[in-house]
Write a structure and sequence with these properties.
By secondary structure, the chain is mainly alpha-helical. 62% of the residues lie in helices and 12% in strands. The protein contains six helices and three strands; from the N terminus they run ααβααββαα. The chain has a three-stranded antiparallel β-sheet. A hairpin with a 2-residue loop joins β2 and β3.
Length: 146
């Protein structure tokens, strides 16, 4: 496997920085009056893709860090009404974290605001099949980090 060209790494790194800034702006402009931390946002995104929630151990693995820090994060988000916590039906000792209705609303509002910012920002970019294919290839390569 060959190493990517430095200019590709530089471009993707600039893109990543810009997308984080754009997401931060979307959080501020979403009208929710709530700007989640980076880890809270990550958990909202992940839980939004998990139909029946995640076990606490899966949350820890997904957001990184230790089990105690993941547990504190979940408790803070539960107190804010963003997630719910239930006993795992398959293992009564386990805990499942699910996205609450409030969490779904916040997640959706931020995603809508971010998409609007993306559309406005990219309005002047010339689209081409090659550009779209290249971006899909980069997205696929980064998928394990999603």
């Amino acid at each position: 496997m060959s190493s990517p060209q430095p200019e590709i790494i530089d471009a993707v790194e600039r893109l990543a920085f810009s997308l984080v800034a754009l997401t931060t702006a979307a959080m501020a402009s979403s009208g929710q009056g709530l700007e989640p931390t980076f880890r809270q946002w990550r958990l909202l995104v992940i839980l939004g893709e998990a139909d029946d929630g995640l076990r606490l151990g899966e949350v820890t693995a997904a957001i990184g860090g230790s089990a105690p820090s993941a547990s504190r994060l979940v408790r803070r988000m539960e107190a804010r009404g963003l997630v719910g916590v239930t006993r795992d039906p398959t293992d009564g000792r386990g805990i499942r974290v699910v996205l609450s209705a409030g969490g779904r609303e916040v997640r959706s509002a931020i995603l809508v605001a971010r998409r609007q910012l993306l559309q406005a920002s990219l309005a002047e970019v010339r689209s081409s099949p090659a550009l779209a294919a290249g971006l899909r290839e980069i997205a696929a390569a980064l998928e394990p980090w999603r």
